[in-house]
């Protein structure tokens, strides 16, 4: 009874059967009745053995080869290890072999290539090593081959093309290299092809892929592909899934992809694709998922995207899209996720994003969107994440937004939102993050804030909230980070804050808090950051804070605190700057306390100069400075007398004191003092002693450069033009010309951006900012990516111009002077942007003007990087001027 003994050997090689799955395998019953064993009813031979997913571990006995009549063998989803027994090849009738989801190792036994009837070979998710076996080509009857999730190396052999019956092929998740063989196009019956993930192929997608007319799913993600997407893919009329993400694909989105009418999911994200979304994509009417994020795509988001009837997921973040978000987006009623963050989008948000009440995520971080948040989002009960930070959104927070039952994350930071904190009693218990930083919100916090039972981060800094903090804030038992800094809160710091036992970060700085620091704060055992600076706190610093071992950073500076600074415990680690600005504090960080007098003056440190010596040094420096200034003034006046130019007015028929020959004698190389847009300027010394400037125009008075149309001029005049030919345009020329000596339309866009900056700032492109600094560099330095810093550089001669219009022109200018040419809009897009002036916030009685202060204007507070959630990618959104 060789089969009986073979089965017992298989059981004996299993060293762990915690579920007693093979308890029936004993001599008391016939082996045909054992679990997982199937026999031929007439001849009593074992024809199938299926012991998959039974929690077994051990090795697969080589005696499995004695099951000579076996047709199906599956040990999938267990914990078998060791090599695959070569004796399996002794079962010539084997058609189905599934060893997936185990720990089999070593190389693939080439003896298995003798199984001439094998149709399914599944080794997915094991630890197989060695080169991809070329001998598999002998298994000509194979229909399903899955080698994914192993450690195979080498190339996919060209012999792979001999599997004329193959319908399923997966080699993903290995360490394969080399080129994808063109012979793969011979697999004309193939329906599913998976070659991505952890492989690192050379070259691109072979055009022969277009021969796979039956292909339904093609996944070549994250496998090192380069080159362009072949147009031959358009032949795959049955394709419903195309995954090419995380590669190095370049070129434009080929319009031929619009012919894939059966396509449901397309992911081309994380590549280097450029250009615009082609109009042919409007034909993809079955598309449910469109991922194009992290590419270099430009242009606007086409309106037809909002008309795709089945679209559920749209992710376009981190590209260079301009224009507005399609206003019909969401009207199909199926939209679930939208992410258009980190682009250059403007305009208002679509009003019907949640038309079918299926929307779960809306992410628009880091754009230039303005206008109100759609009120309809306040009734979108399916919403779980709203991330709209770092835009120019205005108006109030939509009613009902805080009450959405599934909302877990709300980020509206760095906008122009106004109004009060919603005071509804019915608040979402699932909301974990509330970030409203750097807006214009005002009023008092409602007592209902204590109903946010699940909130973990409450970030309200950089607003205009006032009044006292409600005591109900102690109900936020899940709160770990609270930032209420830079507001107008007043009153005492409530001891109820100490009830939030999970707090690790508390920032109440830059407010109007008064009274004393509550001693209850020492009960917060895991607090590691505490900032109470720049308030009106009085009294002493509680000595019990020294026992808070988790506390690593504190700041009590610039208050009215008094008394002795504790020196024990955690206070021995704090920096002295944490106590500055409190005149009545004394102790180890400041100066010694005098008995009976807390407010003492700080004595000089050991080794410092005496007051009399300091006075002598100051007087000496003053005398030296005066003498130096006098000498400098005398020299400057004498130089001015010799070089000062006089106004020279010509009248009709005026007789000159020099001749044409005197002028021509000056046109020498040594006398060149500059090269302008229309010629060369020479210095000339006339016989009468006069110094004049002579400009020699180019032939036909043609300029050597026109800062608009520079690309056309250089292209027309040949590639040999040198930099000296455009010296007169310094300050307007795009930076890439310095190292490429090539210009195009985007060079003209840069020049136009410089002109816009001149218009907004009232300054010249060069010469006013120091050596080597032009207006673009100066603007970036002065604004530092912060919206409220822009007001400081605006031309003071624009007091009556609406501020929102000036800001919009400034934003367009900064787009035009992007350092990378690819990031700049086209002139057509610039014109479109300039015609899309934003409307001021409806809460204002009239347009704000340039003369307004930062506190009353439509500008946002200093921008802070938006909070990023790891599940949403997200990269930090670029600041306004991150170019």
From TrEMBL:
Q: Which Pfam families match?
A: LRR_1 (PF00560), LRR_14 (PF23598), LRRNT_2 (PF08263), PK_Tyr_Ser-Thr (PF07714)
All copies of domain Protein kinase, residue ranges? 410-837
Could you list the residue ranges that cross the membrane?
Answer: 615-634
Gene3D superfamilies on file: Ribonuclease Inhibitor (3.80.10.10), Transferase(Phosphotransferase) domain 1 (1.10.510.10)
- Indicate what this protein is called per its UniProt record: Protein kinase domain-containing protein
Q: Where is this region: Disordered?
A: 838-883
| Keywords noted in UniProt | Leucine-rich repeat, Membrane, Repeat, Signal, Transmembrane, Transmembrane helix
Please give the InterPro entries that the UniProt record associates with this protein.
Kinase-like_dom_sf, Leu-rich_rpt, Leu-rich_rpt_typical-subtyp, LRR_dom_sf, LRR_N_plant-typ, LRR_R13L4/SHOC2-like, LRRC69/RLP, Prot_kinase_dom
């Amino acid at each position: 009874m060789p089969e009986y003994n073979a089965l017992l050997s298989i059981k004996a090689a299993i060293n762990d059967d915690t579920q007693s799955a093979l308890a029936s395998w004993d001599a008391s019953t016939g082996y045909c009745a054992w679990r997982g064993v199937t026999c031929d009813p007439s001849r009593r031979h074992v024809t199938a053995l299926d012991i998959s997913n039974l929690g077994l571990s051990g090795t697969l006995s080589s005696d499995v080869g004695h099951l000579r009549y076996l047709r199906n063998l599956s040990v999938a989803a267990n914990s078998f290890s060791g090599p695959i027994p070569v004796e399996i090849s002794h079962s010539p009738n084997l058609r189905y072999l599934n060893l997936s989801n185990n720990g089999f190792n070593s190389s693939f036994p080439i003896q298995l290539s003798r199984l001439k009837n094998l149709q399914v070979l599944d080794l997915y998710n094991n630890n197989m090593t060695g080169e991809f076996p070329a001998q598999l080509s002998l298994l000509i009857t194979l229909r399903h081959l899955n080698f994914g999730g192993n450690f195979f190396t080498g190339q996919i052999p060209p012999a792979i093309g001999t599997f004329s019956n193959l319908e399923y092929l997966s080699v993903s998740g290995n360490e394969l290299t080399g080129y994808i063989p063109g012979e793969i196009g011979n697999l004309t019956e193939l329906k599913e092809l998976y070659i991505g993930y952890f492989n690192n192929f050379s070259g691109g997608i072979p055009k022969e892929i277009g021969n796979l007319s039956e292909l339904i799913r093609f996944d070549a993600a994250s496998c090192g592909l380069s080159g362009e997407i072949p147009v031959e893919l358009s032949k795959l009329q049955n394709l419903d899934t195309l995954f090419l993400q995380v590669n190095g694909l370049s070129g434009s989105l080929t319009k031929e992809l619009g012919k894939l009418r059966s396509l449901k999911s397309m992911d081309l994200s994380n590549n280097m694709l450029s250009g615009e979304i082609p109009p042919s994509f409007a034909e993809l009417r079955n598309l449910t998922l469109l991922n194009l994020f992290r590419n270099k795509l430009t242009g606007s988001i086409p309106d037809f995207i909002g008309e795709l009837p089945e679209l559920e997921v749209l992710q376009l973040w981190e590209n260079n899209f301009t224009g507005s978000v399609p206003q019909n987006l969401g009207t199909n009623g199926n939209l679930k996720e939208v992410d258009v963050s980190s682009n250059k989008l403007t305009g208002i948000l679509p009003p019907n994003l949640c038309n079918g009440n299926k929307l779960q995520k809306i992410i628009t971080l880091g754009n230039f969107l303005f206008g109100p948040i759609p009120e309809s989002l306040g009734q979108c009960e399916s919403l779980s994440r709203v991330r709209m930070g770092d835009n120019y959104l205005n108006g109030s927070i939509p009613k009902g937004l805080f009450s959405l039952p599934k909302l877990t994350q709300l980020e509206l930071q760095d906008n122009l939102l106004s109004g009060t904190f919603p005071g509804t009693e019915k608040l979402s218990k699932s909301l974990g993050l509330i970030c409203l930083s750097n807006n214009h919100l005002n009023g008092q916090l409602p007592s209902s804030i204590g109903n946010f039972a699940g909130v973990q981060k409450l970030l309200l800094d950089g607003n205009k909230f006032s009044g006292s903090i409600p005591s109900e804030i102690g109900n936020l038992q899940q709160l770990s980070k609270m930032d209420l800094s830079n507001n107008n809160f007043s009153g005492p710091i409530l001891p109820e804050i100490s009830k939030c036992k999970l707090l690790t970060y508390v920032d109440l700085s830059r407010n109007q808090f008064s009274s004393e620091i509550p001693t209850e704060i020492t009960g917060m055992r895991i607090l590691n950051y505490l900032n109470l600076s720049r308030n009106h706190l009085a009294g002493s610093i509680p000595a019990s804070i020294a026992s808070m071992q988790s506390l690593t950073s504190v700041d009590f500076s610039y208050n009215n605190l008094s008394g002795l600074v504790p020196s024990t415990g955690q206070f021995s680690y704090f920096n002295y700057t944490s106590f500055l600005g409190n005149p009545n504090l004394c102790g180890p960080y400041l100066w010694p306390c005098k008995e009976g007098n807390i407010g003492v003056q700080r004595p000089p440190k050991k080794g410092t100069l005496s007051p009399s010596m300091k006075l002598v040094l100051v007087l000496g420096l003053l005398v030296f400075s005066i003498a130096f200034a006098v000498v400098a003034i005398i020299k400057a006046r004498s130089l001015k007398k010799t070089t000062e130019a006089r106004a020279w007015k010509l009248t009709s028929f005026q007789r000159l004191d020099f001749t044409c020959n005197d002028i021509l004698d000056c046109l020498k190389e040594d006398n060149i003092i500059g090269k302008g847009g229309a010629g060369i300027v020479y210095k000339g010394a006339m016989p009468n002693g006069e110094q004049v400037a002579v400009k020699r125009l180019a032939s036909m008075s043609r300029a050597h450069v026109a800062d608009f149309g520079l690309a056309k001029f250089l292209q027309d005049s040949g590639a040999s033009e040198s930099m000296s030919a455009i010296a007169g345009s310094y300050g307007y020329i795009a930076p890439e010309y310095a190292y490429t000596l090539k210009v195009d339309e985007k060079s003209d866009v840069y020049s136009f951006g410089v002109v816009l900056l001149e218009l907004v700032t009232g300054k010249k492109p060069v010469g006013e900012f120091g050596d080597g600094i032009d207006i673009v560099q100066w603007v970036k330095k002065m604004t530092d990516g912060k919206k409220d810093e822009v007001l400081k550089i605006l031309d003071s001669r624009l007091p009556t111009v609406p501020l929102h219009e000036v800001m919009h022109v400034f934003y367009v200018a900064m787009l035009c002077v992007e350092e990378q040419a690819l990031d700049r809009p086209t002139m057509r897009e610039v014109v479109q942007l300039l015609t899309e002036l934003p409307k001021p916030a409806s809460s204002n009685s009239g347009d704000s003007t340039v003369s307004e202060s930062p506190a009353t204007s439509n500008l946002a507070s200093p921008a802070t990087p938006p909070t990023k959630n790891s599940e949403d990618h997200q990269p930090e959104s670029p600041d306004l001027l991150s170019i």
